[in-house]
Amino acid sequence: MQLVWFRNDLRISDNPALFHSQHNNQASIAIYIATPEQWIKHDDAAVKIDFWRRNLECLHRSLAELNIPLYFFEVASYDEVPELIISICQTWKITDLHFNEEYPINEQRRDHAVQNVCIERNIACHTYHEQLLLPPASVRTKAGEPFKVFSPFAKQARLQINEVDTLTYKPHIQSYIQVPTHAKQKNIEQLQWPEVSSSIQTMWPAGEQVATSNLHHFCTTNLIHDYKKNRDIPSVRGTSFLSPYLNSGVISVKQCWQLATQYCEQSDGATVWQNELLWREFYKHVLIDFPYICKHQPWKQYTDAIPWRNDKSDLEAWQQGKTGYPIIDAAMKQLLTCGWMHNRLRMVCAMFLSKHLLIDWRLGERWFMQHLVDGDLAANNGGWQWSASTGTDAVPYFRIFNPVTQSQRFDPQGKFIRFLLPQLDSLDDKQIHLPNKDKPDSYPSPIIDLKYGRERALASFKTASN
Questions:
Q1: Quick check: is 299 catalytic?
Q2: 131-165+209-289 — its CATH code?
Q3: Domain assignments of the chain as residue spans, ordered by start
């Protein structure tokens, strides 16, 4: 009997672990193990965990149509997973365990522990790299070193992707099977799930069919062709909105890449969108090659000497969208109300916190993870370290986004600001980016002078680098 262990791969199409478990018409059983205490330790957002739950319900139905049962279990943390899996394997007479790799350091330790106990019990373990376009350690410089800059990484990756197997894995219907009830087996409703508002759930409908439909709509309409010009404008739907589905494995990065490839010759938009997929790939390879960044450490070690400010008042103002800078406040409100933030604004908000306010980027990284439906350790850490100038291929420390200039450039008429901050709707297109003395009393004054914040950041970074 074959056992498939689902994690962040909540789909049946292009799922190598599921596909290979059915090799030679083997009978497959699927499991999902919830780890609520571990989710808290990892700052997983309630909206993301709820998204997992709803996609698991869809996966349960899809697997049932293939006569593959999906059973649910719960333990507090990863430490209890190996013993549980061995118990399941013994109860159901499992000979082979299949799962897709996860790359953060805690997940790797968990999986190695599972593999070790399986070896002791003569249970074969089969692992697959479904989260990546290219396997770990496969994209290297001529010297055989990991790439530390995105552009050459992307160039080399494109060359290698063209040579990889383009097979999309499709499972098949198997004969109906029945197994004994395991003592720790639960219904999905019995697992510990956070409560999330129905309005946010509506924003992010669940299911592999939804994800696939959204991908096809994005790639077969002007959305992908206009992506290059619209992706930085927060007031328009210029992006794919597929990140939550990619992060939870409801759709695969290979499916996204292959469909976009069909349109690359028609417009630059498809190529630019593929570059975003390659940024995702780059950050995952960086996390694999430099695992210490999983431990809240900067990639550039010297930046730990920066005298980060521990100003709880400024941090809370940033978190709650009360900085007095409308583009920052609108973006932070979008995060709180939607569980998502426009990518351009993620960079603007990150730089404002880490540069103008000189508050430790790790506090911002954590806040994003605690609220993002698409929160991914590699991408979130990579984005924050890029913005804070502490990471690989990061923006130079002296390049600091001015939130007012960014607002004027990417939201010139204040459409995005007006939608998220209706109290500013009466201001004209000039005032809306930095309200003057005529601002509503309900809107706060700027918490910092941008010139002062910039000069302080430059001095702090320069001192730390010497």
A1: no
A2: 1.25.40.80
A3: 2-130, 131-165+209-289, 295-465
Residue-wise pLDDT for 109-124, tens only, equals: 999 999 999 999 999 9
Torsion of CA 387, 391, 392, 395, to 10 degrees: 30
> pTM for the whole thing?
0.96
Q: Which CATH class is domain 2-130?
A: alpha beta
3-state secondary structure of 240: coil
CA-atom Rg of the chain in angstroms: 23
Residue 39 catalytic? no
- The catalytically annotated residue of 37, 80, 102, 276 is 276
Q: CATH code for 295-465?
A: 1.10.579.10
Which is catalytic among the residues 279, 299, 340, 386? 279
Would you call 273 a catalytic residue per the annotation?
no
Helical pair 326-338 and 312-319, crossing angle rounded to 10 deg? 70
- The residue from 39, 361, 367, 386 that is catalytic is 361
Q: Of 308, 318, 340, 386, which residue is the catalytic one?
A: 308
Is position 310 annotated as part of the catalytic site? no
Interval 189-240: pLDDT, tens: 999 999 999 999 999 999 999 999 999 999 998 999 999 999 999 999 999 9
